């Protein structure tokens, strides 16, 4: 085991230096469960820095033992090696000490570090958290600026790898993912509080996966996204997106006629009822998407269990095997489909039926008409 | 004398051993014969075999007993990324991936043998679809458009070469295809105006053997870029042709700077695997402006069509059309839709859809069916020879597409928004294109691959994360298990120690399903390998 760990670490180190030199990189293959690693990494702990000095230097220890993977400025090398900047806000001193002593995943255990060396390292790691915590506040200190840009750069790297395919490389939208530089949620976000929630929970209904990023990684991501939003605002007209002015090609009178006639919209909706003031609540693309398919519209369901006592509620889940609702009290209830009778009332399906009937002019005209309902 | 006798005994025992346990000698040695005629206890290439049918001759799991299917084991990748790989099985060891990660796992127990982690890199991490194996070597693509050759025994790296420049915007996600002495690989990258290509790499040295370019070099006037080649093709050893789908042209949503058909984007191409020379091409989306890559599996089927025996190629394409071609010459036998499609004015005399210029993305938006994800996507369909059914995860859907001059002519160059979609498993009669049965898979869409077996069972997944076993003849549900995450990969099956396993990747977990031991041991269904 010790030998394989030794090899692993040597390969990591070699690969890192090779990639620094832009050579064909080689990386690590680890044998067996990495968590079982117990041996120290010899290339570092055989000659620990400060081993002979009375007061070990945390900075020196960090540079010798940690920087190779976690970066000289604790910025990490994502996705493989997490940043340590701000680690003191995520882990307790005991947790950090345990990690150093026992390793985790690909991280080797540093069993030969003396207690005073670990203490020095801990002090160094946690002292620097204040630097990062204040990195978002304006400062003229080059060190602080370096940390701030390291955070954004880390966020950029994370974004390119995990988000760019859907949201575009510049966060301005791409395959299936919306333009984040125009997102209301991003505009309302402060320091990753709202972005972090979406990132960690995902949006399953929109097929956005959840990402298990650390607080630090979310901070980096939101920094990058905010930077992109600022950049996008300064490039008006040069990036793609849909403006309210783009959606003004229709004829409101023709739209009203379609609404009351061919489209049969009036059978469910009313300009003076549910749609009164709709154009004040939504505008532009948002309004058009709501008009074409209001994806959050609720369906009703009636379930008849074998007892015969029917239960009504809002449809909460339905697949081939399970039906679930929330009843009038907000209580969630579910049944095996095979054990009950149920019927779903889903008025939103009328929108699906219209898709194959609309012309593009119908849509533009309807848009023009709805925009008169202020 | 004793020494000589010992030598003799050793030689005899070695000979006996080699007869008794031939697999010991061929361990992890995937040769041309193994790829051409895969044994039941293997799944040695992305599709399982060269045809791309994703159909298994195994019959232990049947429509009658599949209701008893249960979990043999599950492997946790502990990664954020979903498994999009089709695992390989060679000599009892499974090889599968997520971006930057490759595992070798014991197919009997699901425990890890080794785990390889790729270097940090800036390539697009959208997915990793698996590896290829040739002899004792695994071929893995990094997100940064590098090919890595590793020792199958322990995951140590032999070499690492760049197949494209990540700094220009290329990335790689696919499982390479091994044909003869060639490791054949394609690339992704349509956020930039870059030409797509296919390369053949020498499995021993990593040297380039040939390159086929889908489009002219960037900057060639009045031509297109694009035509990315990101899913492994199929191979007909008799015709000695590989069949490969190419992706959309770039700029993606703006067709004005690239007039004409934009060959060879959105095409099925037939190439000589030894030279890379084009034998024929069939374009499924001339002048695409909707991002509908034609990389869906070109499935090779031998059968009758219009009463005549034919060597065919079948593709259910992202653009909503179902094609049957004569794969000897690329001539079209059938073109039909398999869901709502509204972007054409008809089909031309060669069987190609004719794009409606009115349905190109516009400043005030165009309603388009299907959506950008398409009527189906890269996850494999399956062809069941007994019923003649081509079974595909379909995605009826609508979206709106926008493009205006301000969006420019580079990369995406527009915007599109999905409005609505759902998942439906469709069983298409290949001779008519008629849908014989369909099975609803839920709102949004499922996106799972499909596997069929000779016993008449179809495996796939629904939009809710259920793994499904259906009756191939009518699409009725026979068994299901909630897995907690959608299946974003294509199932495989194999038989080990007399037991048939079905593997599904759901989220970041690989599940192995099998019949309870008591049901199959010694029974007539337990067949030798």
Would you write up a description of this structure?
The complex is a heterodimer of chains A (374) and B (529). Chain A folds into four domains: 2-132, Cytochrome Bc1 Complex, Chain D, domain 2 (Orthogonal Bundle), CATH 1.10.760; 142-233, Cytochrome Bc1 Complex, Chain D, domain 2; 246-295 and 351-370, no CATH class; 300-346, SH3 type barrels, CATH 2.30.30. Helix content of chain A is 44%, strand content 9%. Chain A has helices at residues 2-20, 42-45, 58-70, 87-90, 93-102, 115-127, 129-133, 142-162, 164-167, 184-188, 193-201, 215-233, 252-260, 278-281, 284-292, 349-355, 360-370; strands spanning 28-31, 300-304, 311-318, 322-326, 332-336, 341-345. Chain A has a five-stranded antiparallel beta sheet, with no helix packed on it. Chain A is elongated and about 90 Å long. Residues 1-28, 30-53 and 129-140 of chain A have low confidence and may be disordered. In chain B, strands 27, 28, 29, 30, 31 and 32 form a six-stranded antiparallel beta sheet that branches. Chain B has a five-stranded mixed beta sheet with strand order 1-33-34-35-36, with no helix packed on it. Mean pLDDT of chain B is 93; it is low at 14-27 and 522-529. At the A-B interface, helix 1, strand 1, helix 8, helix 15 and helix 16 of A face strand 6, strand 10, strand 30 and strand 31 of B.
């Amino acid at each position: 085991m010790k030998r394989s760990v030794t090899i692993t670490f040597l390969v990591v180190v070699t690969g890192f230096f090779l990639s620094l030199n832009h050579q064909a990189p080689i990386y690590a293959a680890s044998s067996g469960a990495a968590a079982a690693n117990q041996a120290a990494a010899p290339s570092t702990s055989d000659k620990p820095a400060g081993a002979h000095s009375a007061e070990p230097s945390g900075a020196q220890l960090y540079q010798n033992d940690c920087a190779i993977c976690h970066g000289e400025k604790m910025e990490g090398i994502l996705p493989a090696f997490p940043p340590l900047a701000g680690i003191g806000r995520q882990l307790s001193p005991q947790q950090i000490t345990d990690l150093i002593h026992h390793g985790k995943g690909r991280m080797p255990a540093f069993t030969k570090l003396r207690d005073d060396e670990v203490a020095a390292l801990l002090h160094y790691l946690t002292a620097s958290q204040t630097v990062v915590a204040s990195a978002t506040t304006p400062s003229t200190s080059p060190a602080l600026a370096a940390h701030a840009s390291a955070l954004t750069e880390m966020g950029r790297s994370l974004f390119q790898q995990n988000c760019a395919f859907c949201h575009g490389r510049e966060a301005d939208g791409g395959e299936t993912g919306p333009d984040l530089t125009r997102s209301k949620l991003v505009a309302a976000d402060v320091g990753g509080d709202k972005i972090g929630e979406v990132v960690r929970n995902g949006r399953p209904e929109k097929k956005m996966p959840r990402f298990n990023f650390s607080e630090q990684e979310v901070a980096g991501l939101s920094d990058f996204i905010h930077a992109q939003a600022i950049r996008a605002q300064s490039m008006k007209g040069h990036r793609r997106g849909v403006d309210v002015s783009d959606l003004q090609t229709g004829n409101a009178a023709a739209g009203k006629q379609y609404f009351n006639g061919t489209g049969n919209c009036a059978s469910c909706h009313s300009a003076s009822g549910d749609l009164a003031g709709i154009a004040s609540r939504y505008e532009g693309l948002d309004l058009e998407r709501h008009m074409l398919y209001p994806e959050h519209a609720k369906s009703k369901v009636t379930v008849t269990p074998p007892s015969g006592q029917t239960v009504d509620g809002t449809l909460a889940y339905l697949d081939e095997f399970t039906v679930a609702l929330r009843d009038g009290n907000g209580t969630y209830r579910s049944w095996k489909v095979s054990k009950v009778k149920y019927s779903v009332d889903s008025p939103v399906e009328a929108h699906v039926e219209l898709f194959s009937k609309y012309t593009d002019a119908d849509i533009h005209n309807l848009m023009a008409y709805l925009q008169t309902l202020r | 004398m004793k020494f000589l006798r010992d030598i003799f005994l050793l030689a005899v025992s070695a000979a006996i051993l080699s007869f008794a346990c031939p697999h010991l000698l061929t361990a992890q040695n995937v040769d041309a014969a193994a790829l051409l005629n895969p044994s039941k206890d293997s799944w040695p290439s992305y599709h399982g075999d060269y045809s791309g049918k994703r159909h298994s001759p195994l019959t232990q799991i049947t429509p009658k007993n599949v209701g008893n299917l249960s979990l043999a084991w599950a492997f946790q990748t502990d990664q954020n990324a979903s498994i999009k790989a089709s695992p390989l099985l060679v000599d009892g060891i499974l090889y599968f991936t997520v971006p930057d990660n490759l595992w070798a796992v014991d197919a009997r127990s699901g425990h890890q043998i080794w785990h390889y982690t790729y270097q940090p890199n800036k390539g697009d991490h959208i997915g990793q679809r698996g590896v290829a194996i040739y002899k004792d070597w695994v071929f893995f693509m990094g997100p940064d458009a590098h090919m890595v050759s590793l020792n199958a025994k322990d995951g140590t790296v032999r070499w690492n070469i760049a197949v494209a420049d990540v700094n220009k915007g290329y990335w790689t996600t696919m499982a390479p295809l091994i044909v003869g002495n060639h490791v054949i690989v394609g690339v992704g990258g349509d956020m930039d105006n870059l030409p797509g290509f296919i390369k053949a790499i020498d499995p021993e040295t990593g040297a380039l053997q040939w390159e086929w370019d889908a489009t002219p070099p960037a900057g060639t006037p009045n031509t297109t870029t694009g035509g990315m080649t990101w899913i492994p093709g199929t191979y007909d050893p008799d015709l000695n042709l590989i069949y490969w789908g190419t992706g959309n042209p770039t700029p993606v949503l703006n067709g004005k700077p690239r007039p004409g058909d934009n060959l060879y984007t959105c095409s099925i191409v037939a190439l000589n695997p030894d030279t890379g020379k084009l034998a024929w091409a069939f374009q499924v989306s001339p002048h695409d402006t909707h991002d509908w890559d034609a990389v869906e599996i070109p499935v090779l089927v031998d059968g009758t069509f219009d009463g005549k025996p034919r060597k065919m190629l079948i593709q259910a394409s992202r653009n909503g059309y179902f094609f049957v071609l004569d794969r000897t010459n690329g001539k079209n036998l059938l073109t039909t839709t398999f869901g709502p499609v509204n972007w054409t004015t008809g089909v031309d005399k060669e069987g190609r859809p004719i794009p409606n210029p009115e349905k190109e993305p516009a400043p005030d938006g165009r309603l388009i069916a299907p959506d950008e994800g398409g009527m189906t996507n890269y996850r494999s369909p399956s062809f069941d020879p007994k019923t003649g059914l081509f079974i595909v995860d379909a995605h009826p859907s609508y979206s709106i597409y926008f493009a205006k001059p301000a969006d420019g002519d580079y990369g995406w160059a527009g915007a599109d928004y999905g409005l609505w979609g759902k998942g439906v498993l469709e069983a298409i009669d290949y001779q008519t294109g008629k849908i014989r049965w369909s099975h609803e898979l839920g709102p949004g869409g499922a996106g799972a691959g499909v596997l069929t077996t000779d016993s008449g069972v179809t495996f796939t997944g629904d939009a809710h994360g259920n793994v499904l076993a259906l009756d191939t003849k009518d699409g009725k549900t026979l068994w299901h298990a909630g897995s907690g995450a959608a299946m974003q990969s294509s199932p495989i099956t194999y038989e080990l120690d007399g037991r048939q396993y079905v593997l599904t990747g759901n989220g970041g977990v690989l599940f192995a399903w099998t019949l309870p031991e008591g049901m199959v041991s010694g029974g007539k269904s337990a067949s030798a390998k």
